[in-house]
Amino acid sequence: MTYFAPLDDMVFALLQAAGDGAFEEGGLYGDLGDGVAESTLAEAAKFAEQALHPLDRVGDRIGARFSEGAVICPPGWREAYSRWRDGGWNALAASPEFGGLGLPALLNAACTEIWNGANMAFALCPLLGQGAIEALEAHASEELKRVYLARVVSGEWTATMNLTEPQAGSDLSLVRTRAERSPDGAYRLKGQKIFITYGEHDLAGNIVHLVLARLPDAPEGTRGLSLFLAPKFLPGGDGRFTLRNDLRCAGLEHKLGIHGSPTCTMIYGDSGGATAWLVGEENKGLACMFTMMNSARLAVGLQGVGLAERATQTALAYARERRQGRSGADQGRSAERIVEHPDVMRMALTMQVLTQAARAICYETAASIDRARRERDPVRAGEADERAALLTPVAKGFSTDIANETASLGVQIFGGMGFIEETGAAQLMRDARILPIYEGTNGIQAIDLVGRKLRLGGGGALRREIADMYSVVEAAGGFAASGVVREAVAALEAASRSLLEADTSKALAGATPYLRLFALARGATLLMKGALSGDPRRVALARFFADNVAVAAPSLARVVVDGAPSLLEAGGTLL
Amino acid sequence: MTYFAPLDDMVFALLQAAGDGAFEEGGLYGDLGDGVAESTLAEAAKFAEQALHPLDRVGDRIGARFSEGAVICPPGWREAYSRWRDGGWNALAASPEFGGLGLPALLNAACTEIWNGANMAFALCPLLGQGAIEALEAHASEELKRVYLARVVSGEWTATMNLTEPQAGSDLSLVRTRAERSPDGAYRLKGQKIFITYGEHDLAGNIVHLVLARLPDAPEGTRGLSLFLAPKFLPGGDGRFTLRNDLRCAGLEHKLGIHGSPTCTMIYGDSGGATAWLVGEENKGLACMFTMMNSARLAVGLQGVGLAERATQTALAYARERRQGRSGADQGRSAERIVEHPDVMRMALTMQVLTQAARAICYETAASIDRARRERDPVRAGEADERAALLTPVAKGFSTDIANETASLGVQIFGGMGFIEETGAAQLMRDARILPIYEGTNGIQAIDLVGRKLRLGGGGALRREIADMYSVVEAAGGFAASGVVREAVAALEAASRSLLEADTSKALAGATPYLRLFALARGATLLMKGALSGDPRRVALARFFADNVAVAAPSLARVVVDGAPSLLEAGGTLL
Fold first, then answer.
1. CB-based contact (8 Å) between B426 and chain A?
2. pLDDT in tens, B301-317
3. A202 and A126 share a domain?
4. A residues 481-500 near B, CB within 8 Å?
């Protein structure tokens, strides 16, 4: 099983998301040198294919191991991490002020897809570090930034997010970890955190934990949460980070997938309290975490894209070699390649177009983040910011759902061999299964979309998004499937209206099918926009997506509009 | 994680499939004593819950192991198998002539669901044995029956199906295993078979292999396949079965799931040839295999039902305990049970109704088999036979698809805990993944449905089935969701017409969405029929199924009717 970054498709999607003229002087990315985007992606692809991907299988088979408080990453991973760090890959997105390359979010998004296509369990470590970097850049004191930020940016040290506790998962208001003020201006943390990705490992010299905890006098609920920085090693008398802090990994979870990524139970304050410093203000921890989470949500969406791409490549390669049976068209003697069977074609094409639609949505989200930061016109910057907020739950929810769907279709294309671990198709399915769960379950994404994002800017963000979809349909008037796509957008419009008028229960009941509907309409229009290039393959795939996938939109709209009463009534039988 | 056979739901579905008056004198099952069905299920439930289910997790964790040609089943499995055999459970379905209880297919179907809900990896052994029993009953010589059948029926010995070879999976025309005639009237087999479930194990004293192989002068393709019986132990001079035959297990597959079930590579004829006897006629092996396969296909559908039921129970139990967040309806202080959140309700209800729809379809299939065998009127018996043939691919394809969907939804309801192996939700997802693959992939089921079954009896079987669906809709005129259900049936009717007029490529292209459409329309009408009982829970669930699941039917019909051109065009880009 191999993975190659699909540079043609990626660059195409990247340029489409950037918009016309974006890389020209005065354009959104006019500051980037000519061809920098393409060459960065090509280098990233080379590194991922050569250094990260070959370690993916050993990561699955051997996994991270726990031994007397230490965590040993799979064979070869330490060396790969050194190459990652030394190659400067960790510093792509961060601000140049702290040693970062300051690459646009869009370019970083494409790289994130590549790392995760090659080796998702490995890529998860820098992915979470990137969220931490953003939180520190935005909220940490100058002193904390000075000491920690450059080292986390370079990858010399790694960083983690510590939110979850046994009783507090989706509901962070239930967090119990305590923080006490210490006379030296620092704090002491006591509590248990679970599901901490790379909470302990042997890849880097120090681990910077960002920890959500509660001060003694804090209000209840999420308004009483504060964010702290607690390093694994504290500075000793000589200023070198050699003193073990009072925090430790108590064990690793035995997981369905991403075996190479250590998922740690972390104990803070066994011996009096872990030394920690406040990030941002007291009781404003959740806002700081949201800085990390939004970035991480898009990144998790891109994990889904990378994994879906790899599942597609893997299954398609098999379907092009494996010979079984004869399809209807040719009743000759010799068995055909299974890719020639219409039913296998359907599976492989579905994998391809779902991947492309998810990629397009994620890249649009990333480009909107760039536009919000780079656009000089404040109105347009504000609109771009709203657009990024609107699209983020769709990017996360849809891309991770389709990662599971494509991984499962991939197993199906492999047939019996798909159920055997040696082919690797099953691993992708196991790995993918975490994506709709972490960084906010996809149910949480859907509720965020329906409960908050639809009303963003007085509903303006949604109106502009739908108007943009219609404009694509207009431009594609002669396109064979434009009628189906128009119906999909109209279905989204009707469902949106219904949700905006609905009471809370009905809106929540329709949230998940609505997110899917949104993604189908947006995906269909983005693929159709790409088809306007006239490239016969893009035309064919856009048409397939419309006729065979987005055609579900009207049914989904009916579920959103009419499904809630029977759901809420039947739900009563479950209680 | 526990499993309880849902006896109320099962008996309800069983009585509905049997039809009014079936258990009265002169009725379809009038020969069964009063209450025999209920008491048999209750006993089966007790046995499965107490003897089989507790061994499911150890089966997953430890799995079957291979050591020097032998296979060691997981701890406790030998004892469980002894209890299974001694309790007479293996003999339920077989003919009394060979020691079976001759139980109707419908009652046996319900038991099959129970065994597989409790421990699918264990239940797979007798499941395949049952297919072998049917093939031997129908095709074996009296001599072979005398020697082997009673022992396989009682469970003293087990039986296997040997079809697949590395190059011959879905396409059995590619089978290469050779059979040579021997002067003693027996045959000698040489070849390699893969994916042989329970091909070797330590549960029983002998293993009777049914092997598909090719005689030297046989025609090419499937018309040159013959079926043979090759036991692990041959009779020695004293008539006792102590002589090792020339066949062996060369190793086990390392699989995604059903770890307790040994999946063997079998080598025949290392030392000259495995001794075997012909079952049925030379070159008529495929027909004999089809006897096994149809029965096995329904049984695999029932594995899906059992697994889906267990996934639903498991997730629902968690959702009723786990407290996170507050839903819209109640913004009070304390966290709610997650089952109260509309989005979790949607997942749990979807799991419930998909399970019930699949159960209803499988039980209807089983009842049709009984009717074909027991009905005195030859026309009605013939129609029932056609109905069983029509419904079998739907029962297998849909039930195994929804087993995967429910298992994945179950993981999602567990959230982060779902990704951790200790909760067991992930195991169900891993186990379920084989179901759409083995006993004919679900693609093969869909092609069978579209390519052969739609035209059965000149299309009469399909017409009668759709007419029956409409009759339910008529009877449920006042039912809240009857409009949606009528649309689903109409969509099925339109899609069927389109397929009957379509060329082969188009029909094959639409096969998979058509199977789903068929199942949604049939499932919606069967649930609605159950709701006519007036039981509020059944009414609510039937309505939920209509409004939130079967509502996809018109979109699926459009994919079937209009999706093929773009599929076939885009498929060209894959080649």
1. yes
2. 999 999 999 999 999 99
3. no
4. 481
